[in-house]
């Protein structure tokens, strides 16, 4: 039994390394071989993919991860079958929304030529959302070898084809989206064939849909606000400065990919530690544990920022080439941003443990309002540096708002 659990954990870990590592390598290959402007166009369009992905995560994936695991295998198959169809309809709804955006782009300049590549973007969104869903299906079913196999097809498959295109000097934006679409669709179709689908019952499907919406609607609102807070400055940079700016920001985010893996690990491990301490010893001990992790994280990040200050040029030049060298200083700014992200993660974990999550939504509302009103000003005044300044301020706003709630909880616990 122990060996089985270890094997499952190893497969999940290896799968996460595979996905994150493939995305990291993909970012390097595209930045070096597409050129700054075309890579910027790809990065701009990929924001659209991630936007719909964040909605799917809140609307479909989070509910099934919460509810499906509580059901027996027989009932679970009926439950998941409904969500296979829900996800299918959601994907096509996303396509209809995107088609509407293309129509609006006749009158609004988004900074890139959407009309030339719309069909490839459409298929990429459909493929990405579908594959992301089917891989979560196999996580729920505890079929980790199938999960790993599907991700090998999707992620290593696209890397292999892209390397062939680069070798034959045929890499273009259209070929890139075709490659991503085919690799993810192939993975999805294989996964779909292997699912245990049951016959749909309309009454049961209607009941699931209503319960799902009741559970997920606030998650959707939070997800939209969180996405806007994190990306509005980048979108405005692409619109006002040109797609190259989005490409530059993307390589900085790509370089920080290792921390994304670390943050995912922390989001999986620390909530359990916080909950156990809170249950056994109460809020004060949990608060002390929170402060300990906060201080440890700050010290590590300060040390890393000090090192990056001296070698940022070498990192950017080595990974992405001299074309991006003039913007290597932005890497220091992104380390500062990720330090604040780490602090925000700790705050959210503590707040969720005591079930005071409304303050998280409120903090996203405030930071989103700031982004909406000031993103244009920051980009016009500071150029690409405005993305860094604006993002840091939004993170500080979130920190301050949640800090007051945590401080209030601490005072109430000491009374």
Characterization of this structure:
The chain is mainly alpha-helical. The protein is 87% helix and 0% strand. The chain has 13 helices and no strands. The chain is globular, with a radius of gyration of 22 Å. The model has no long low-confidence stretch (mean pLDDT 84).
SSE diagram, text form:
Layout: H1 2-34, H2 36-67, H3 73-104, H4 118-140, H5 144-167, H6 173-194, H7 202-241, H8 243-255, H9 257-281, H10 283-320, H11 330-353, H12 358-382, H13 385-414
Which tags fit this structure?
single chain; mainly alpha; 87% helix
Short summary:
The chain has 415 residues and is mainly α. It is built from 13 helices and no strands. The relative contact order is 0.10.
Largest sheet: none
Q: What sequence of helices (H) and strands (E) makes up the elements?
A: HHHHHHHHHHHHH
Beta-strand percent range: under 5%
Average pLDDT number? 84
Number of helices: 13
């Amino acid at each position: 039994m122990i060996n089985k659990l270890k094997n499952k954990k190893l497969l999940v870990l290896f799968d996460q390394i595979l996905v994150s590592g493939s995305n990291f390598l993909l970012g390097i290959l595209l930045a070096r071989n597409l050129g700054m402007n075309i890579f910027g166009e790809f990065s701009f369009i990929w924001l659209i993919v991630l936007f719909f992905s964040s909605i799917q995560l809140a609307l479909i994936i989070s509910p099934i991860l919460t509810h499906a695991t509580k059901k027996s295998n027989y009932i679970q198959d009926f439950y998941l079958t409904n969500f296979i169809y829900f996800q299918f309809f959601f994907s096509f709804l996303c396509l209809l929304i995107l088609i509407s955006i293309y129509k609006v782009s006749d009158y609004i300049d988004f900074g890139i030529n959407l009309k030339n590549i719309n069909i490839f973007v459409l298929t990429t969104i459909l493929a990405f959302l579908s594959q992301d869903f089917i891989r979560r299906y196999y996580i729920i079913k505890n079929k980790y070898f199938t999960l790993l196999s599907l991700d090998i097809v999707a992620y290593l498959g696209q890397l292999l084809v892209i390397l062939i295109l680069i070798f034959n000097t045929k890499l273009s934006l259209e070929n890139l989206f075709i490659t991503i679409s085919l690799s993810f669709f192939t993975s999805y179709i294989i996964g779909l064939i292997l699912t245990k689908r049951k016959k749909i019952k309309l009454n049961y499907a209607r009941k699931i849909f209503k319960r799902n919406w009741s559970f997920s609607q606030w998650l959707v609102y939070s997800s939209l606000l969180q996405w806007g807070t994190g990306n509005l400055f980048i979108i405005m940079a692409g619109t006002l400065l040109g797609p190259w700016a989005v490409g530059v920001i993307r390589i900085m985010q790509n370089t920080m990919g290792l921390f994304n893996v670390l943050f995912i690990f922390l989001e999986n491990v620390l909530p359990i530690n916080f909950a156990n301490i809170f249950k056994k010893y109460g809020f004060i001990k949990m608060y002390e544990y929170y402060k300990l992790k906060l201080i440890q994280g700050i010290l590590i990040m300060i040390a890393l920022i000090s090192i990056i200050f001296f070698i940022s040029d070498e990192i950017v030049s080595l990974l992405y080439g001299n074309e991006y060298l003039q913007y290597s200083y932005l890497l220091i700014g992104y380390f500062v941003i990720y330090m604040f992200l780490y602090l925000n993660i700790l705050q959210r974990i503590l707040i969720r443990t005591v079930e005071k999550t409304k303050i998280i939504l409120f903090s996203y509302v405030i930071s989103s309002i700031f982004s909406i009103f000031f993103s244009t000003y920051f980009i016009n005044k500071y150029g690409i540096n405005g993305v860094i300044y604006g993002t840091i301020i939004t993170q500080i706003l979130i920190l301050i708002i949640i800090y007051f709630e945590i401080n209030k909880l601490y005072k109430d616990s000491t009374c």
